[in-house]
Task: structure prediction
Amino acid sequence: MTTGRALRLGESVLGGGVLALGIFLAVETTQLRVGPTHATVGPTLFPYLVAAGLLIIGALLLYQAFFGHVAHERGIELDFAAVGLICVGLVLQILLIERLGWIIATTLLFTIVARAFGSRRLVIDLAIGLALAGLSYAVFNWGLGLSLPYGEVLESLTAGDPAP
Result:
Protein backbone atom coordinates (compact mmCIF):
# COMPACT_ATOMS: atom_id res chain seq x y z
CA MET A 1 0.00 0.00 0.00
CA THR A 2 1.29 3.41 -0.93
CA THR A 3 1.40 5.93 1.88
CA GLY A 4 -0.05 9.41 1.71
CA ARG A 5 3.42 10.89 2.06
CA ALA A 6 4.72 8.97 -0.97
CA LEU A 7 1.67 10.00 -2.98
CA ARG A 8 2.20 13.66 -2.05
CA LEU A 9 5.83 13.33 -3.12
CA GLY A 10 4.75 11.87 -6.46
CA GLU A 11 2.20 14.61 -7.03
CA SER A 12 4.71 17.30 -6.13
CA VAL A 13 7.23 15.79 -8.58
CA LEU A 14 4.55 15.85 -11.29
CA GLY A 15 3.66 19.46 -10.48
CA GLY A 16 7.33 20.46 -10.45
CA GLY A 17 7.88 18.71 -13.78
CA VAL A 18 4.95 20.52 -15.41
CA LEU A 19 6.14 23.81 -13.93
CA ALA A 20 9.68 23.19 -15.20
CA LEU A 21 8.33 22.36 -18.66
CA GLY A 22 6.41 25.65 -18.67
CA ILE A 23 9.52 27.59 -17.67
CA PHE A 24 11.57 25.81 -20.33
CA LEU A 25 9.00 26.57 -23.02
CA ALA A 26 8.79 30.23 -22.02
CA VAL A 27 12.57 30.64 -22.02
CA GLU A 28 12.95 28.87 -25.37
CA THR A 29 10.20 31.01 -26.88
CA THR A 30 12.07 34.16 -25.87
CA GLN A 31 15.03 32.82 -27.88
CA LEU A 32 13.01 32.66 -31.12
CA ARG A 33 14.18 35.22 -33.64
CA VAL A 34 11.20 36.63 -35.46
CA GLY A 35 11.55 39.17 -38.21
CA PRO A 36 9.53 42.36 -38.19
CA THR A 37 5.92 41.75 -39.02
CA HIS A 38 2.78 43.78 -39.34
CA ALA A 39 0.62 40.96 -38.03
CA THR A 40 -1.13 41.47 -34.72
CA VAL A 41 -0.62 37.83 -33.78
CA GLY A 42 2.98 36.72 -34.22
CA PRO A 43 4.48 33.24 -34.25
CA THR A 44 5.38 33.40 -30.55
CA LEU A 45 1.83 33.88 -29.27
CA PHE A 46 0.86 30.21 -29.11
CA PRO A 47 4.08 29.00 -27.46
CA TYR A 48 3.63 31.72 -24.83
CA LEU A 49 0.00 30.68 -24.28
CA VAL A 50 1.04 27.03 -23.88
CA ALA A 51 3.85 28.05 -21.50
CA ALA A 52 1.41 30.13 -19.44
CA GLY A 53 -1.02 27.21 -19.27
CA LEU A 54 1.74 24.84 -18.16
CA LEU A 55 2.91 27.31 -15.51
CA ILE A 56 -0.61 27.70 -14.12
CA ILE A 57 -1.31 23.96 -14.11
CA GLY A 58 2.11 23.19 -12.58
CA ALA A 59 1.55 25.74 -9.82
CA LEU A 60 -1.93 24.37 -9.10
CA LEU A 61 -0.59 20.80 -9.00
CA LEU A 62 2.11 21.84 -6.54
CA TYR A 63 -0.44 23.67 -4.40
CA GLN A 64 -2.67 20.58 -4.32
CA ALA A 65 0.30 18.33 -3.52
CA PHE A 66 1.23 20.39 -0.47
CA PHE A 67 -2.12 21.69 0.79
CA GLY A 68 -4.89 19.69 -0.90
CA HIS A 69 -6.09 16.12 -0.66
CA VAL A 70 -4.29 13.27 -2.37
CA ALA A 71 -5.79 12.70 -5.81
CA HIS A 72 -5.57 8.89 -5.84
CA GLU A 73 -5.71 7.27 -2.43
CA ARG A 74 -4.71 3.85 -3.84
CA GLY A 75 -1.87 5.28 -5.95
CA ILE A 76 -1.71 5.88 -9.64
CA GLU A 77 -3.53 3.30 -11.72
CA LEU A 78 -1.99 3.29 -15.18
CA ASP A 79 -3.48 1.40 -18.10
CA PHE A 80 -0.30 0.28 -19.86
CA ALA A 81 -2.22 -1.13 -22.84
CA ALA A 82 -3.84 2.26 -23.51
CA VAL A 83 -0.54 4.11 -23.11
CA GLY A 84 1.14 1.64 -25.46
CA LEU A 85 -1.63 2.02 -28.02
CA ILE A 86 -1.35 5.82 -27.93
CA CYS A 87 2.44 5.56 -28.35
CA VAL A 88 1.93 3.29 -31.36
CA GLY A 89 -0.48 5.85 -32.83
CA LEU A 90 2.00 8.69 -32.38
CA VAL A 91 4.85 6.69 -33.94
CA LEU A 92 2.58 5.73 -36.85
CA GLN A 93 1.68 9.36 -37.42
CA ILE A 94 5.33 10.37 -37.45
CA LEU A 95 6.16 7.59 -39.91
CA LEU A 96 3.16 8.13 -42.20
CA ILE A 97 2.63 11.90 -42.24
CA GLU A 98 4.93 12.66 -45.18
CA ARG A 99 3.78 9.68 -47.24
CA LEU A 100 0.03 9.73 -46.53
CA GLY A 101 -0.36 13.37 -45.49
CA TRP A 102 -1.76 15.21 -42.50
CA ILE A 103 -5.40 14.28 -43.01
CA ILE A 104 -4.97 10.51 -43.28
CA ALA A 105 -2.21 10.22 -40.65
CA THR A 106 -4.14 12.35 -38.15
CA THR A 107 -7.37 10.46 -38.81
CA LEU A 108 -5.55 7.22 -37.99
CA LEU A 109 -4.06 8.77 -34.85
CA PHE A 110 -7.48 9.96 -33.68
CA THR A 111 -8.98 6.53 -34.28
CA ILE A 112 -6.20 4.76 -32.39
CA VAL A 113 -6.40 7.16 -29.45
CA ALA A 114 -10.19 6.78 -29.34
CA ARG A 115 -9.69 3.00 -29.20
CA ALA A 116 -7.16 3.44 -26.38
CA PHE A 117 -9.77 5.43 -24.44
CA GLY A 118 -12.24 2.57 -24.84
CA SER A 119 -14.26 3.48 -27.93
CA ARG A 120 -15.40 0.52 -30.02
CA ARG A 121 -17.15 2.53 -32.76
CA LEU A 122 -14.56 2.31 -35.53
CA VAL A 123 -16.60 3.92 -38.32
CA ILE A 124 -17.76 6.83 -36.15
CA ASP A 125 -14.23 7.36 -34.83
CA LEU A 126 -12.87 7.39 -38.38
CA ALA A 127 -15.53 9.90 -39.45
CA ILE A 128 -14.88 12.21 -36.49
CA GLY A 129 -11.12 11.92 -36.98
CA LEU A 130 -11.47 12.69 -40.68
CA ALA A 131 -13.64 15.73 -39.97
CA LEU A 132 -11.28 17.11 -37.32
CA ALA A 133 -8.16 16.42 -39.41
CA GLY A 134 -9.74 18.02 -42.47
CA LEU A 135 -10.83 21.05 -40.46
CA SER A 136 -7.39 21.51 -38.90
CA TYR A 137 -5.78 21.09 -42.35
CA ALA A 138 -8.03 23.80 -43.79
CA VAL A 139 -7.45 26.18 -40.87
CA PHE A 140 -3.66 25.80 -40.96
CA ASN A 141 -3.20 25.76 -44.74
CA TRP A 142 -5.74 28.33 -45.86
CA GLY A 143 -6.62 30.25 -42.72
CA LEU A 144 -3.14 30.69 -41.27
CA GLY A 145 -1.11 30.26 -44.43
CA LEU A 146 0.96 27.41 -42.97
CA SER A 147 1.65 24.23 -44.91
CA LEU A 148 0.70 20.87 -43.48
CA PRO A 149 1.82 17.89 -45.58
CA TYR A 150 -0.64 16.84 -48.26
CA GLY A 151 1.05 13.48 -48.71
CA GLU A 152 3.01 11.90 -51.52
CA VAL A 153 0.30 9.31 -52.15
CA LEU A 154 -2.47 11.90 -52.50
CA GLU A 155 -0.25 14.11 -54.65
CA SER A 156 0.44 11.25 -57.04
CA LEU A 157 -3.27 10.36 -57.19
CA THR A 158 -4.46 13.91 -57.80
CA ALA A 159 -1.64 15.05 -60.09
CA GLY A 160 -2.78 13.02 -63.10
CA ASP A 161 -0.94 12.82 -66.40
CA PRO A 162 -0.87 15.94 -68.55
CA ALA A 163 -2.76 15.65 -71.81
CA PRO A 164 -0.53 15.31 -74.92
